Amino acid sequence: MRTTRTIVAIAAVSLAAACSGTGGSDDGDAGNYPDDNITFIVPFSAGGPTDTVTRMIAEPMAKELGVKIVVQNKEGAGGTVGAGEVARAKPDGYTVLMHHIGMSTAPALYKNLPYKPLEDFETIGLVTEVPMTIVARKDFAPATLPDLVTYVKANAGKVTLANAGIGAASHLCGLLFQHAAGVKLQEVPYQGTGPALTDLVGGQVDFMCDQTTNTTGQITAGKVKAYAVTTPERVKSLPDLKTTAELGMPQLQVSVWHGLYAPKGTPKAIVEKLSNALKKALANQAVIDQMAKLGTAPVPADDATPQAHRAYLEEQLTTWAKIIADAGVKAT
Ligand code: ASP
């Protein structure tokens, strides 16, 4: 799903990262690790897309590591509350964060972010990259994406756009939509797009962007109206849904990558152990099948590494800082 330019950037920075020895603190070894339950922090609500991806890989990773993995939802402020908590956790491998593209967008959107993505975390590995869809409540008037643009411009004061808080993927996608359409809408923040989608199905909000891992079931069941998918190619699991580019909005392209993080200073041997367990989980056929049904796939094994993840994070921090600045969005 990544562009060639990105892959080249990853390759270049991977090399630099490998040379500078990223992927955990050199002090200490894995010892008996793990000999206790590991907690995976999800910085968004239970039942949402980040939560879904986390639970998909937690079980096979737990099997591989021989301990339980407890998934905890620490939602708030577009994912920054949970991420901040992991940044301050003991670097012993027992607290791990699953985060998404928000790790690379938040620094440009928050003036006082309580962590620094590159300085406060060890990257463990990339997990998956998920397309987004633009969806609306079933009885929302516009029929197509071009209709949606016309409609929201004419009704800007009353249309509501749901998101999972500043810095969340849905917020970012909503910003790009508003920028492309040339309109400013009333945004309704939730703690995650799990509850936002529930409200959308219930008709309490008008529309939003969300990952296919959350919307596929509702789209195929006809419970929401789907306008477009925000990736260059259509998604196999939703073959009739056109892309934003096909519908005249090529500048609205965003897919949501996920990665696992440990607090800075976690011993390298522990980070490697977690990364190897992640790789095994991503090769698990049940995980591959589950992801395919929801419009996504595991990253290639080489990307489920601390080095490739760090390189991608570095590239994404630069990319999104520029996109956000170019869109005229100011940090709050
Ligand atoms: N999809 C959400 C977002 O907008 C996150 C979530 O609830 O998983 O970032």
Automatic annotation (TrEMBL):
A Pfam family reported for this protein in Swiss-Prot or TrEMBL: TctC
Keywords, alphabetical: Signal
Signal peptide (UniProt feature, chain positions): 1-25
InterPro entries per record: BUG, Bug_dom1
Family the entry assigns: Belongs to the UPF0065 (bug) family.
PANTHER family recorded: BLR1237 PROTEIN, TRICARBOXYLATE-BINDING PROTEIN
Name under which the protein is recorded: Tripartite-type tricarboxylate transporter, receptor component TctC
Annotated source species: Virgisporangium aurantiacum
